Amino acid sequence: MSGLRDLYQEVIFDHNRNPRNFGRLENANRSAEGNNPLCGDQLKLYMLVDADGVIREVMFEGHGCAISTASASIMTETLKGKTEEQAHEYFRSFHAMVTGDPLDDGAADIGKLEVLGGVREYPTRVKCATLAWHTAEAALGRERDTVTTE
Ligand code: ZN
Prior knowledge:
The protein is of the alpha+beta class. It has helices at residues 2-17, 66-79, 84-99, 123-139, and strands at residues 30-36, 41-49, 55-63, 146-148.
């Protein structure tokens, strides 16, 4: 199992060092801010959602720890091209994985998001990993516009 863990750490390290979809999205029609004061993670998320409810573009900016940055980076890759409804299902599945609290109706296949599963052993890091996802929920109108993990 340590080989798998090393691989996961390598993926997190890579996304932290070279975050994907990092920066401001000028033509965004959805945005939200997220703060995790416990760790000092801050991010702003931008989305361009088309008339069919498909997330065409998603970008983020801000600063935070390796876990929060990697999670946001992987999330942007995951959500691009998905519908708002699919995004919400990913949120639920991801949240269930990192909190170790399985869903009654079964989780979606979360693919590479699995690399962040290790944070469930570190409760304070769960907030780092879920910050971007809560912020995405806010951008899509499912939570308040400014998210704080406190
Ligand atoms: Zn953090």
